[in-house]
Amino acid sequence: MASLLRWSDSARPGKAPKRLSRTSDQVTEAKKKYEDKRVREFKTHWMDGRPWLKYDNENSVMYCTYCKEQGKGGKFVSGCTNFRIDTIQNHEVSSPHISATSVAERPLPQNSLAAKAINSIKQTEYDRLSILFRNAHAVAKHHLTFKTYNVICKLDQAKGLDVGNSYLNDKKACEFVKNIASVSRNETRDLLKKTPFLSLTCDGSSDFMGG
What is this structure's pTM? Predict the structure, then answer.
């Protein structure tokens, strides 16, 4: 009876079972079936070092913000569902993406050193004109002569205020007052246009001299 017992080829100790060889077509078909059944998910660490890569949780798609902003085409604009790292890498080295990246990562004009210098100059000039306009407004409001404007500006300089060296004469004061009056008229006109009803009350009054 014992003589009838024997090891099968697939169960012999220390010997690997024989495997049926498969053709390349069979291997390809098996991989395809595996990929069809496999559920891939977006990995958040793919976004590390890729500020352009975003994932839309609601629609379950990933997309490229750079290409989207620059109006490029492709699946990374409409939304890509092929969640593979090689898909991302292929897009990363594509010509449209490289072009969009060069534009998206270009320094903004307002952040350049030249722009900051210009903005600084503009702000300084704005601050100076603000003081001068207030001085001209005070002269007109209190019915003072425009010659007083220059005196007030010199007083500001003595107090350490930066009023510059321009627009300090009575002629400029007159121009400032005209501009202030023009803005006030426009604001009043716009307000009256929006008002459905208007009432005017007229009464006698004295002039600024008290007469």
Answer: 0.43
